[in-house]
Every structure is written in structure tokens, then in C-alpha cells.
Amino acid sequence: MGSSVLLLNLLFDGLVLGCIYGLMGIGFSLLWWISGIVHLAHGGVMLAGGFALYVAFGALGLPFVLAFPLACVLALAAGLALDRFLYKPLIARGTDEMGLLTASLGTLITMQYALTLIFGPQGVTMDADRLRAPLVPRLLPVFDLFAVLAIAATALIFVGLWFLMARTRIGREMRAVAENRDLARILGTDIRAVQTLVGAVAAALVMPAAAFLLFSTGITPPEALDIVLIASVVAIIGGRGSIHGALIGGIVIGIAESATTWQFAAGWRQLITFALLYALLLVRPQGLFGKAAA
Amino acid sequence: MTKLSTITRLAISAFGAIMLAAPSVSPGHAQSAPLKVGFLMPLTGGSSKLGQLMLEGATIGVDEVNASGGVGGHPLQLIPEDSQGLSKNGIDGFRKLVDIDGVHVIITGFTPVVVGVAPLSKEAKVYLISASTASPALRGISPYFQSTWMYDDETVRRILPYAQKTLGVKRLAVLTALNDLGESLAASVKQEWQRLGGTLAIEEGHQAQEINFRPSLLKIIAARPDAIYFTNSNGKQAAQFIRQARDLGFEGYILSFGAFEDPEVLAVGAKAAKTYYTAPPYDPNASAERSRKFVDAFRAKYDRLPNIHQANHYDLIMMIKAVAEKLMRDGKPVDGEDFRAAITASMAQYDGAAGPYRLNFQDGSTLRATIVKTVRDGAFVKVADAD
Amino acid sequence: MAYPIHLLITFDIFVLLAASLDLLTGFTGLLSLAHAVFFGIGAYATALLAKTLGPVPAALAGAAAAALVSALITLPAIWVRGIYLLIVTIAVQVVFTVVLVNWTELTGGAAGIPGIPPLSLGGHPLRGAELLAVLSAFTAASIFALARLAKSPFGRLLQAIRDDETGCLVLGKNVAWAKVSVFAFAGGLAALAGSFYAHYTSYVDPHSFDIAVSTLILLMVMLGGAGTLFGPVLGALVLTLLPEALKFIPLPPGTAAPARQLLFGLMLVVVVFVRPQGLLGGRLVGAHA
Q1: Mean pLDDT of chain B
Q2: What is the mean pLDDT of residues C214-241?
Q3: Cβ contact, residue pair B215, A128, below 8 Å
Q4: Fewest Cβ atoms closer than 10 Å to its Cβ: which of A34, B110, B347, C219?
């Protein structure tokens, strides 16, 4: 494999990684944009969903078509529980931003270590097996069914979300709440219902990412904070309020990370993500596609 | 300043109570007080499977000692502390074992832990003995540290010639874990490979906790090696690496060292074929009496055959018992300083359940037989006698 | 006697860390999860320089380096706060750990740097009770200085920034400069704590300065009461004793470490629910009067 072919492979791998990053970040993005909640515990919910999928599919041996929805249900339940018992009460009593962030961070840590106690700090991984057979062996070993699935799933989900936001009544209400909550309330939108729905959507959206993680690098509790970091970097780089921004942001990070490996040792990969974030915050805090900073 | 609230007062009292109680938490000197030995090993974390296996081996030893009257009449008590294979936890565990439990001898291992506690052991005069430390950088780290597992600069001198001559490897890639063990091991590998006249295709580094090796693997595969030397001592990561390497189409050999013999690797299945590593020869079906006694006891308790790591740790317990009994016979206290004097004087050679040992107290190393093993049909099997 | 001294030294170091973070978080409203970075810079500076430069110059170099690095954080923080600042601090913390682990030539990599000489003043090495005495004196002096700072015009400006940043800007206060200086000062103090730590443990490695440590320091501040200065001191006391107390509880081997972290996480949540002003907090931080 020559150097340029290597780069091609790295870029493609980065694209796949970026799609997964986009999936990781979109739920977080929506919740932040629409409900104004910085859901640091997002990482915990994703881990929980991943473990649930592992238990249903890997440990209990249920067929995937059954295991996946079951895991979705669990993720939904976790997300809605956090919304109902953590965020709503704190917001209702006027807790300030620092308090909310602290509570969310504490929840993330609690979930991470509860899962560590149950599943061990190494977490679980499942073998994607035949999905990983290269479709074009010599030239592009990274191009396999797994990659195709990741890209296809991402495309589907993002198109679906765009449709939801742009073409449905619910989507319009969500955008209204995001842009001007008071006005939306005056116009008769049920704010609480919208926020609960957003919480549900965000929770359900962790599952595709969790599934891809389970079958690649694994669901490992120490990754909880990294997941949230990537989600927030995706949200910030993409820009608040922009769905396609989150996807593009994810892909940019994924490709950047993979590309650095081309010249530098793989250990420095994470640096590029934060360098990008840093540069962006200095130059264009509203992100690539964001509306003006809130 | 706010006046002292109730909470503050409570906290200060608790603090005072602990400080007053602490001095009294030192071992008594009663006649049949137990002889306490620390076991500072990874019980959770990436190397926990190995750590737990090693604990099993040590437990068999402790059971046998106590069933036959203990050490000079004192029951032997093994106190496990979880190091997680990390230096910080290792240091915390060491402090607890020494300051609270009052031990003078500790079984420990894994490079980050040893690097952290070896200087402390010298100061506290606590003897550290290990059957799970492989980094050549630890040679001579402390006169209070002794390894019964070969340092891997020696084992690379066994596997690399085998790879070159028998497996026909011409181009070698090295995947260096960015930690002490990985780096010193990689240095030994490169040095030996160069001496043998082989070609170093590429060296790639990876974060010690890395689970996604694909970018590194892509670069390595682009350099067309016949074999990749894997320097990480974590079984789960080794398993991930093997899977990802095979998925990306790497069909060459994977070489490694003793820590590779981990159940996680076997769990990979068919993809783990064409992997070779060095280990001391251990055959649980050997007929030597000392080995048989251990194997029978192990099988009775755990319903399976033991492996080299368990045999090693059984031997550690037996060595400790022998040295402690010698001290008691000579009327000396079983503390770190005397233990060290006694072991260096009497145990240059030892015949254990895991085979013969030749201990070098000058630099804390050991010499043992080494063989090359591989994975075949879901088990670790011996392929060749390497020396 | 070694054990109580060990506890007290740990307590002193935690006090320095918690109090300096309180200046940032409690007084100025800048939530930071990067405090272990400054702690680590001081420790590594001492590890690398104490043998050649002597302990005091090495510690000062560490503090200066920490102040410089803090500028990295404050640069974007001048324009953004809240979650943006938090993400930047987390990013800096993660990058710091990556650098420590990967830049082996300088930092010794994951294995760290062993063999740091004990702190010696005038050629006399300080161990045990002597080190504790010097450290305690330094800690007490620091707390005193911080208390004076809190009451000074600068301290009042910081609190005003926390409560109403826009208002401060409108009044023409140099908010950017205040943020930069408080970060530099807090970072420098944390670095000095790191230098003491390095002399005491004689060994530094990346794991001792990672995000878990930053989270622990934050917990001390929130638990004790952000913005009260003595609250974090109490928080430091509780969180020094708690792991020690937990050691006496028989837990299945290997569950102690995650159980401890789980407890810290829970405590963070409970504090915000039950007593957001912390144990010693008088006024609710940021509440509407």
C-alpha cells in the first residue's frame, strides 16, 4: 500500500468515524439548542444503551431486531428519567448554570462508575465479524459492510431529522421554542411537552451511535467523558441549531483525527480535535453553521 | 469567619479520632499472630483477569501452608489490595498494606506499580517479590525488589531468532505501547532485530489505553511487514488488536511476550492463529512431585488445570514461607530487612512447581527456561524449545 | 505516626487546591475542570528542575509555567463562559494528559518520573513532620492571603463578574484582565501545591493529574460551599478523610476504587439538590435574592 493509498484509507476511515461522531453529537446538540440543557450525562445514557444492547444481543442472545428496540427503550427510559427527576426539578427551583452543570457532571460520573461496578472497567466489545470483511481488499481494506452501514444509517437519521424539523408541525414547534421560548408560549405551544419530546428524541438518538461503538471500539465506561466531549465539540463546531452542522462537524473531526495519523503517531490524535475546537472558539464561536451565539 | 458549624465540629472530631486510633492499628506481637503478606496486584482493570488468576495460584499456596501448620506455627495471611496496574493505586495500596496492615513482604507486579512502590519499599524496608514484571527498565530498581519472571530483554532474544529462522520473517513492525514496559521492550526488540540483520519495517506508537488500533494498523500494513511485535501487556487490548489486524487483512505473524497468555486472547477465536510469544515452559501434566501436589490441589479447588502464572505465584508463597521459617529458626524477626538478608543468602536457586529458578539478586532479575508458544485450537500450546 | 502525618500532608495539599479553585469558581463564577493541569505542571516542573535548579526556583518556574498555560484557557474564556468555558477546560485537561503520556522524552511518558529529591531548605531535607510543618505554614499563609484578597477591591470585582458580568462591562470594568489574572493566580497557587506534592511522593505520573483529580477538587469546592473560601477547606477535610474511612469498609476486592468515584459523583448531585450553597455556604450561589 503506497502512501497515497494509505491516506485514502485513513480518510475513508475518518469519514466513517466522523459519521459515528455526528450520531454521538446530534442528540446532545438538539437538547442544548431546543431545551437549553447541557446534558453532560449524555455520555452515561449512551453507555447504558450500549450495555443494554450487549446484554440483550450478546449475553441473552436475542435476535438483533428484538435486542435493538429493547435497548432503545432502556435508553429512552434513562433519558426521560433524567429529564423528569434531574433537570426539571432543578430548573424549576431556579438552579443556576453552574449548579446544573455540576449536577449533570455528577450524574455522568455516577452512571459511569455504576456501570463500571456492574460490567468492569474494560467494558464490553462485540465482534462485527463478517461485517468487517473488506469489500475491496487490496486497495481499500477499510471499506467494508460496517462502514457502509454506518454511513447509510447516519444519512437516514440525519435526513429524517431534517424532515422532522423542517416539514412537521412538531419540528416547527421545536424550532420556535429554540429561537424564542416566550413567544412560542404566547402562541400556545406546550413548552413542557416539546421539551419532553426533545429529551426523548435525544435519548433515542444515542442508540445508533452506541450500537456502532459496541461493534468497533467497544462500550467502555472510562469513555463516558470522552463521548460527551466529542458530542459537545461536534455541537460547538457545527454550530448551535444546525442539524447538518452537527453532521459536518462530526465528519470534519473524524477526518482530521484520521489524517493526523498519516504523519504523526496515533497517540496525538485527540490533540487535533481540541486544536480545531480551540481555533474555532477564538475565531468563530458560533460554529460553522450556527446562528448567532446565545 | 463563620463560627464553627456542627458539621465542621463533627468533621474535626472524626479526624482527631482517626489520628488517635491510627497508631494502635499496628500489628501486635502475640505468639500466634498471623504472618501477613501483601498481594498488591490488579484485581480490576485491564489486567484484572491475569491478576485474579495469579491470586488463585497464591491462594492454593496459602491454603497448603496453613493446612500444614502455618509458617513456624503462625498462620499465613494474604492481604489483597487492588493496584489496577496503575502506579497511583499501587502507591495507595502499598501505604495501606504497610501503614495499616503492617506487612513486611509484598507480592506485587506490573511495571507502573513497581516503578511507583520500589523507591517507597527501599525507604520503608519492605520486601517486594514479583512474578509479573517484565520490563528491562526495572533491572536494579531497588535492592528490595526481586522478580521471579524473566525480564523481556532476555525473552526477545528467544523469539526473534525463532521468527527469523523458523517463521521466515524478514520485515518486522513494532507496535510500541507508550508506557515504560512497552518502550523498553520495543527498544530491546529493535536492538535484537538489528543484531540479527532483520529489517525494521516500521515502528508505531499507541496510547497505553488505546482500543482503536486501526489507524496504526493501516500505517503498519502499508509498510508490508511479515510480522508485528505487540508490546502491550493487557490481554483485552491484545485481543482487540488481533481482531482489528485480521479484519484489515493483515495475514502475517503477531509476536509478543509472556503477558500475551491471557484468556482474552483465546476468546478471539480463529483470528488468533499465527500468533507467537515467549513464556516459561509449563506443563501442568508434568510428573515432578512438587508440581503434581500443586496441580492436584488446584484442580480440587477450582476444577481446572492451572497455568504458568498460577504456578509462579504458588511458588512465591512457598519461597516466602521457606525464608520466613529460616528467619524464625534463627530467632530473627520477620521484617523486611532481615527477609532480604535471608533470601539473598539462601535462595539463589529454587526448584518450584513452575520449574527451576536462578535468581540474580544483583539486579533483581531471574533466569528461567523459555519456550515459544502459539495459539492453536483454542489453547496456548508449545511450539519449540527456544533455548 | 507516619499515617496521620500522611493524612495531614494530603489535607494541606487539597486545601491549597480547593481554595485556589474556589477563587475561580466560587468567586468569579468560572467553572473549571482543568485544575489538575496546574497541579500537574507544578509537580512535573519540580520533578524535572529541582535537582538542577533547587527546589524553590523549580517551584517558582512551575508556578510561572502554570500561569502561562492558564492564559491558554482564558483567551477563549474572555468571550465565552458557562458551558463553553467548561468544555475548553475539559479539553485542556485531556490534552495535558495526552501530552504527559506521549511526550516521553520530556515527561517520562506513562511511567512518570521517579526519584524526586525531598524538599530541602538550606541543605536540610524535610521529611515527615518537618515537611508537614513547612507545608502547613505555607497553606495557612495562602488561606490568609486569599481571604484578604477576597475582601479587597479585586475580590469584589471578581464576585461582581460572577453575579453580573454584563453590568461590569457596562460600568467599564476591565473584565478580561480580571479573568486572566485570577486564572493565572489560581493556577500558580495550584502549581505550588504540585511542587510540594512532588517532593512528598518522590514520584509523579500522568494518572495523578487527570480529570478525576480535577473533578475531586471541584467536589471539594461545591461540597464545602463555593465562594466561601473556608467551605472548600472543609470540603478538603471531608474528602481527605472519606477515602481513608472507606478503606476500613470491607468491600469485594477491586470495587473500592470505582465505588469511591461513584460516591463522589453522587455527592455532586446530592449537593446541588439538597444544599446547593454547600456545607458552609450562606447565600445561595447565584440565587435571586
Answers
A1: 85
A2: 91
A3: no
A4: B347
Please state the domain extents for chain A. 2-283
HEC string of chain A equals: CCHHHHHHHHHHHHHHHHHHHHHHHHHHHHHHHHHCCCCCCHHHHHHHHHHHHHHHHHHCCCCHHHHHHHHHHHHHHHHHHHHHHHHHHHHHCCCCHHHHHHHHHHHHHHHHHHHHHHHCCCCECCCCHHHHCEEECCCEEEEEHHHHHHHHHHHHHHHHHHHHHHHCHHHHHHHHHHHCHHHHHHCCCCHHHHHHHHHHHHHHCHHHHHHHHHCCCCECHHHHHHHHHHHHHHHHHHCCCCHHHHHHHHHHHHHHHHHHHHHCCHHHHHHHHHHHHHHHHHHCCCCCCCCCCC
B82 to chain C: nearest residue by CA?
Answer: C254
* Phi, psi angle pair for B228, to nearest 5°: -120, 130
Which of B189, B184, B309 is closest to B259 using CA atoms? B309
Give A54 to chain C, closest Cα distance, Å. 21
| Longest Cα–Cα distance in chain A | 63
3-state secondary structure of B35: strand
User: What is the separation of C-alpha A190 from the centre of its chain, rounded to a whole number of angstroms?
Assistant: 27
Q: What is the residue whose three cell numbers read 497557587?
A: C189
CA distance C197 to C188: 14
Q: What is the pLDDT of residue B276?
A: 92
Counting one residue from chain A and one from chain C, the pairs whose CB atoms sit within 8 A come to 132
Average pLDDT over residues A54-79: 92
Q: Is B84 left (phi over 0), alpha (psi -120 to 50) or beta?
A: left
CATH 1.10.3470, applies to A2-283 = yes
Condensed to tens digits (0 to 9), the pLDDT of residues B317-371 reads: 999 999 999 999 998 888 999 999 999 999 999 988 888 899 999 888 888 888 8
Residue B119 sits at the chain C interface (C-beta within 8 Å): yes
Contact C21, C35 (CB under 8 A): yes
Rounded CA-CA distance A177/A45 in Å is 24
- Identify the CA nearest to A278 among candidates C99, B327, C76: C76
Residues A184-240: tens digit of each pLDDT: 888 888 888 888 899 999 999 999 999 999 988 888 888 888 898 889 889 888 887
Mean per-residue pLDDT for C21-31?
90
Residue C142 — very low, low, confident or very high, per pLDDT cuts 50/70/90? very high
Check CB contact under 8 Å for B218 and A261: yes
pLDDT digits (tens, 9 = 90+) for C258-277: 888 899 899 989 988 888 87
Q: Test C95 with A99 for CB contact under 8 angstroms.
A: no
Cell, residue A31: 437538547
pLDDT of residue B2: 43
Place of cell 458580568: C165
> B184: Cβ–Cβ under 8 A, 6 or more apart, which residues?
B135, B136, B137, B153
- Which residues from chain B sit within 8 angstroms of residue A266, using beta carbons? 204-207, 210, 213, 215-216, 219
- Would you call B218 and A10 a contact, using CB atoms and an 8 Å cutoff? yes
Q: Which are the contacts of C113, defined by CB distance < 8 A and separation ≥ 6? A: C44, C47, C48, C107, C203, C204, C205
Whether residue B255 contacts residue B230, with contact meaning beta carbons closer than 8 Å, is answered with yes
Contacts of A217 in chain B (CB under 8 A): 211-212, 240
The pLDDT score that the predictor gives to residue B14 is 56
Q: What is the mean pLDDT of residues B121-138?
A: 88
Give which of A109, A273, A274 to mutate to test C binding, by max C Cβ within 10 Å.
Answer: A109
Question: From the CA of B179, how many Å to the nearest CA of chain C?
Answer: 5
